[in-house]
Amino acid sequence: MPTLISKTTSDRPVSMAAESPLLSHKARLPYGGRGDIASSTTIDVRHVTDNDIPEWTRTWSTGYLRTPGEDTADHIREALIGARAIGAFEADRCVGTYRSTTQELTVPGGATLPACTLSKVTVAGTHRRRGLLRRMLDMDMREAGGRGEAVAILDAAEYAIYGRFGFGPAASMAWFTIDVHRAHVDRRQMDDTVGVELVTAAEYRKLASDVYERFRTTQPGALRRDDAWWDQATGLRTSLGSHWVEPYFAVYTSASTGEVDGFVCFTAEEAWQAMQPHSPLLVKDLIALNPAAERALTRYVVKVDWVSTVHLPCRAPDTLAPRWLGDPRAARVTALSDYLWLRILDVPRALSARTYAVDGSLVLKIKDADGYGEGTWLLDGGPQGATCVPTTRPADIVLGVDALAALYLGDDSFTRLAALTSIEEERAGALAVADAMFRTARRPWSPRAATHPEARPC
Ligand SMILES: CC(C)(COP(=O)(O)OP(=O)(O)OC[C@H]1O[C@@H](n2cnc3c(N)ncnc32)[C@H](O)[C@@H]1OP(=O)(O)O)[C@@H](O)C(=O)NCCC(=O)NCCS
After folding, report:
1. Beta strand 397-400 with 360-367: parallel, antiparallel or unpaired?
2. 86 pairs with which residues across the strands?
3. Does the beta carbon of 61 sit less than 6 angstroms from any atom of ligand 1?
4. Which residue's CA is minimally distant from atom 19 of ligand 1?
5. What's the pLDDT score for residue 69?
């Protein structure tokens, strides 16, 4: 079996100076961070080799409260192709797991940024709170600069974990449950779903992946979906720990252009109570390029015969879905939560990659205890583009790198965060200027394929 993942099995500190000129002295500490490593010096944090995978899988399964099956290590081996896997090892025993891949994150204006995407982060219960997550994360963040990744992102399992590492909640999601009988959508009328047709998994894979590719650069927060992603979504490859139930696939074709402008993937279970149909329908994925496509696809799933409840998990927090119903109150929000967390590693690159709602100029002093974004930056931006360079001018606003992350995609306001955090306005009116510049017409969203109707990580 070839070694799939790592080029090195050493945990020697990587030379950051060679990788990112942006790192400050703090990020160059020999152990690479501020975590208390005194209690974990006998633990080796290093890249994982193929031989480590069964042990690494066991630790990861325990951390995610999953029971590993016979083929779990093989699934993990496959999931680590093209990824970086790090482990914390005490002698031969794995006590920490961490995986990252390189993704493309869409930012306001439609540009994409290379993003280090973290997943499968666990530390054994016996070894928690000894700085092992800090050590694994520090190792990868140091290497991210060399890979050209300007930001790091993850879907945070819990709110409290990642703020201390410079991450901020950058995009949210909403979970809806629609009571079909209250929705005031007339099932006898068919004209509002014209253009929707059911397709096979193979047709869907081709059509939906084309739609998504057109969609993702229009949606700040969206990520790339590769072939492996579509293989899983259409059952060609089963995802780890999931029981595959063949979904229904539908696409929407615009009558005026003949283009496929949207798709939906859903499951439904037959259920009856006292001779009345009570079937729940779960929308796993729904992407629309325009309101007409979103309206037709939403009304299509609400009109499926025998269905009494439609679950719409993992949606954009400002989705139009409820407004396509006769009675929007029939769509109850069951959860509204932070979801995508972001850490800015390269401030000038990130700030100059996005566009701004209005022309403006700001001097931002960024505080970053790990050094990556520390500095004072002059941002000149507008609808056509932006520049961001170091400056010696006095700051207009002083803020932490975690606050900047929460503001970056447009999901929060400077004024609101200033009330909650230690953002300081050094020049009167600067917060209002920043709010006007960073505002986006729609909220950011990072679409995921939902596997469950309840509010839990997608
Ligand atoms: C989250 C997890 C990986 C943290 O590992 P760890 O090695 O204990 O983390 P560290 O010791 O490096 O912790 C760094 C800091 O974060 C804090 N922290 C970590 N997880 C936390 C949590 N769930 N709630 C509150 N604080 C947390 C620690 O207390 C520590 O604080 P300090 O810097 O003030 O000492 C581990 O608890 C775990 O495996 N949890 C279950 C799986 C999980 O949730 N993974 C994350 C998926 S996104």
Report:
1. parallel
2. 47, 98
3. no
4. 161
5. 84
Residue 132 CB less than 6 A away from ligand 1: yes
Please state the atom number of ligand 1 nearest to the C-alpha of residue 155.
48
Give tens-digit pLDDT for 338-368.
999 999 999 999 999 999 999 999 999 999 9
Instruction: Please give the distance, rounded to the nearest whole angstrom, from the Cα atom of residue 403 to the centre of ligand 1.
Output: 20
**CA 437 and chain centroid, separation:** 24
**What CATH code would you report for 25-149?**
3.40.630.30
Residue span(s) of the chain under CATH 3.30.1050.10 come to 347-438
Q: Establish whether residue 120 lines the binding site of ligand 1, counting it when its CB lies within 6 angstroms of any ligand atom.
A: no
Residue 455 confidence (pLDDT): 81
Which residue did the predictor score with more confidence, 360 or 457? 360
User: Both tokens of residue 416?
Assistant: 């609101």
* Whole-number Å distance between alpha carbons of 405 and 338: 13
Cα–Cα distance for residue pair 373/288, rounded to 1 Å? 36
Domain spanning 174-337, CATH class: alpha beta
Q: Which CATH class is domain 347-438?
A: alpha beta
Minimal-distance CA residue to ligand 1 atom 29: 129
Describe the crossing of helices 401-408 and 430-438 by its angle, rounded to 10 degrees. Answer: 40
Q: Is the CB of 122 under 6 A from ligand 1?
A: yes
Q: How far apart are CA 339 and CA 166, in angstroms?
A: 16
3-state secondary structure (DSSP) of residue 308 = strand
What atom of ligand 1 comes closest to residue 162's alpha carbon? 16
CATH 3.40.630.30 location in the chain: 25-149, 174-337
Q: What letter would DSSP give residue 31?
A: T
How is residue 150 written in tokens? 């300007």
Q: Does the Cβ of 320 fall within 6 Å of ligand 1? A: no
The proportion of the chain whose per-residue pLDDT surpasses 70, expressed as a percent, equals: 90
What are 170's two structure tokens? 């950058």
Alpha-carbon span 416 to 71, nearest angstrom = 48
- 431 in ligand 1 pocket by Cβ < 6 Å? no
CA torsion through residues 155, 161, 33, 353, sign: positive
CB atoms within 10 A of CB 65: 7
- The residue ranking higher by pLDDT, 442 or 241, is 442
Give the lowest-confidence range in 20-34, 317-331, 403-417. 20-34
For residues 174 and 92, what is the distance between their CA atoms, to the nearest angstrom?
42
Summarize pLDDT for 245-280 with one digit per residue, the tens: 899 999 999 999 999 999 999 999 999 999 999 999
Contact 252, 196 (CB under 8 A): yes
